Amino acid sequence: MANGLNGASYGPPIKPPVKTYYSHGRRGSDVGCGICGCFSSCLLCCGGCLVNIICNILIGVLVCLGVVALILWFILRPNVVKFQVTEADLTRFEFDPRSHNLHYNISLNFSIRNPNQRLGIHYDQLEVRGYYGDQRFSAANMTSFYQGHKNTTVVGTELNGQKLVLLGAGGRRDFREDRRSGVYRIDVKLRFKLRFKFGFLNSWAVRPKIKCHLKVPLSTSSSDERFQFHPTKCHVDL
User: Is 127 within the bounds of a domain?
Assistant: First the structure.
């Protein structure tokens, strides 16, 4: 029997079953990462779409505003307001080099022309400033007013008093020359708020800068007729 068994034929060996182990915690982590990644992708996608929508809206608004402004410009055809000093009467202009005090008395009339056919203009917070050289020696307020279209308005003011003015060597030399000639080089500046009016609509306020370079003769009993003041146009800087 032993020999029979030894001579028997055996099949292929049977391998033991392989045991598989699952890590429940790791599997849950993979699932969570997948959800977070999907949520982040959705946020990025929605954020990009929102930015594109906002940009398109802003571009559309800017284009519409540009078209409206162009149409209004063609309809209204706004023109620059014209300023001119029509009269200037200087009765005193004395500078004391020891005390540096300037004594002055000057009357001014301004002609303001609104050339626009459809636009009225509001002038608010008007102020006139007087300069000799680069030194301001006086300022005065003027009454606010409204000016209709195609209209010329004349307004006046007076600057008088005394002011400490520090003139350098060049300024003193200019003053001596002006005193000898009897004609003084005085700068006048206008500062105010300007608003255009069309129908019942008012524009936003702008602050133009008006500067007038004047040559004003001193009014004395012995003044020569050749030193007459000439109406002077002012420079307008919007």
Answer: yes
